[in-house]
Amino acid sequence: MAHLLLIVSGSVAAYKALELVRLARRAGHAVTPILTAGGARFVTKEAMAGISGARVHDDLWAAEAEIGHIRLARAPDLVVAAPASADLLAKMAAGLADDLATTVLLATRAPVLVAPAMNPAMWAHPATVANMKTLAARGVAVVGPEDGPMAEPESGPGRLAEPATILAAIQGLLASGPLSGRHVVVTSGPTQEAIDPVRYIANRSSGRQGHAIAAALAALGARVTLVSGPVAVPDPAGVTVVRIESARDMLAAVEAALPADAAVFAAAVADFRPADVGTQKIKKVPGAPPPGITLTLNPDILATIAQRQVQRPALVVGFAAETENVVPHAQDKRRRKGCDWIVANDVSGDVMGGVENTVHLVTEAGVEDWPRLPKDEVARRLAARIAESLD
Ligand code: C5P
C-alpha cells in the first residue's frame, strides 16, 4: 500500500506501463503517472488517467502551478521509470533536469527503480553501459531488460521486463515485511502429461492453494517464483510466474529458480506419464481393441529438491493429500522425501478445486491440527510460519 510515482518515457514498450499500473493498483498501491514528451507519443494521457485513476503530469510548468515539482518528488515511497529509455537514463546519469520527469528524478529522496527498454545496440553501447554503472553506484535499482524479440526485426537484450516482473521488483524494494530479502519458490496447479500431440493426462488441481501461498509470501515481502501448471486462477500480483506443462518441465523450472531460502511444493504433480509419446495422434482403428497406455515414473520434484547436496533451500515444504490415516501417512512422507515440513490435507471431502482446506502441519517437532479454513487463510498462516522459521 505504497505511493508510486511512475515515469513513462519514450519507447514502443510504453503500452506495457498501463498494465503495470493496473497490476500495481491491484496490489493496493496508488500510482501517480508522469509522461515525458516521448512517453506521451506512445501512451495517451487519457488512457493513463483512466487506468491510474489519478491526475497525469506531463508538463513541468503546469505541475509547478498545481503542486510544485518538489512536492511531487517528495510524496512517493518509490519512483519507478518504466520504460526507461536510453535518453532518460543518460539524463539521470548526468543529473540533467530539463523536463518534469528529470526534475523530479533529481529532486526526489525516494528510492528509484528503472526498467530500461531500448534497441539492443543502444543497450550495449558503451555510453549506456557507463550510465548504468553510474546509476547502480548511486543505488538506483534496475529490473531487466530481458532478452527476446523486439518490435524491430532484431533480437537481444533490450526488451522491457514484463509488468509482473517489474511489480515483483517494486514489491521487493518496498518490502518491509518479515520475508523481505528472501526468495521462495512455490509450485502450484496440475501437470499435463502428453499422451500424443493432442491428448494429455492431468488432474483436478485448481492451483488455488499454491497461488494463495505465493501471494501470501509476497505480501510478507518475499520475492516469489511461482512455477505453475495450467490453471484458470489469475496470477498473483507481485510474483514471478513461470508456466510449465509437464512434471519434467516443472522440475527444470524449479531448479532454474534456485537458489531459494524456502520452497513450497503445492502442485499436484502427475506421478506417471505415458512412456512413449508419438508424433502423430493415436487413431481409432475400426474393429481393433483400444490401444493401451504404458506409463513411466515422473521425477519427484519435492524429493529431488529436498535431497539436493547443493543449493538445497533451508526450508523445504511438501503437501500430502490423503483420504485416510492423514497424519501417519504425512509423517512417513516427510521422512521418505527428506523435506522439513508436510502440510497434510484431508481430501476426503471436496478440497480438490474447493475454496476451503483442512490441514495438519507435520514438522520434526510434531503435528499441529489447523481448523477447516479458507485456502487464503491456510496460505497466510503457512507464510507466517515460514517467516518465523527463516528468521
Ligand atoms: O507422493 P505424493 O504425490 O503424495 O507427495 C505429494 C507432495 O510431493 C506434494 O508436495 C507434491 O507437490 C510433491 N510432488 C512432487 N513431484 C512429484 C509428486 C509429488 O513434487 N512427482
Q: If you had to describe this structure to a student in words, what would you say it looks like?
A:
With 391 residues, the chain is an alpha/beta fold. It folds into 2 domains: 3-174, Rossmann fold (3-Layer(aba) Sandwich), CATH 3.40.50; 202-390, Rossmann fold. It has 14 helices and 21 strands. The chain has helices at residues 15-26, 45-52, 60-66, 69-74, 86-94, 100-107, 120-124, 126-137, 163-174, 208-219, 247-257, 301-306, 326-337, 375-390; strands at 3-8, 30-35, 78-84, 112-116, 141-142, 146-149, 155-159, 183-188, 193-194, 200-201, 223-228, 240-243, 262-265, 272-274, 295-297, 315-322, 341-346, 356-357, 359-363, 366-369, 373-374. The strands form 6 sheets. The chain has an 8-stranded mixed β-sheet, sandwiched between helices. It has a 5-stranded parallel β-sheet with strand order 2-1-3-4-5, sandwiched between helices. α1 packs parallel to α2, α5 (86-94) packs across α8 and α10 (208-219) packs across α14 (375-390). The longest helix is centred in the C-terminal third of the chain and has 16 residues, at 375-390. The radius of gyration is 24 Å and the shape is globular. The structure holds cytidine-5'-monophosphate (C5P). Cytidine-5'-monophosphate (C5P) is lined by residues 187, 247, 265, 267, 269, 271, 298, 300-302, 318-320.
Topology:
Elements: E1 3-8, H1 15-26, E2 30-35, H2 45-52, H3 60-66, H4 69-74, E3 78-84, H5 86-94, H6 100-107, E4 112-116, H7 120-124, H8 126-137, E5 141-142, E6 146-149, E7 155-159, H9 163-174, E8 183-188, E9 193-194, E10 200-201, H10 208-219, E11 223-228, E12 240-243, H11 247-257, E13 262-265, E14 272-274, E15 295-297, H12 301-306, E16 315-322, H13 326-337, E17 341-346, E18 356-357, E19 359-363, E20 366-369, E21 373-374, H14 375-390
Parallel strand pairs: 1-2, 1-3, 3-4, 4-5, 8-11, 8-13, 11-12, 13-16, 16-17
Antiparallel strand pairs: 6-7, 9-10, 14-15, 17-19, 18-21, 19-20
Helix pairs in contact: 1-2, 1-9, 5-8, 10-14
Bound molecules: cytidine-5'-monophosphate (C5P).
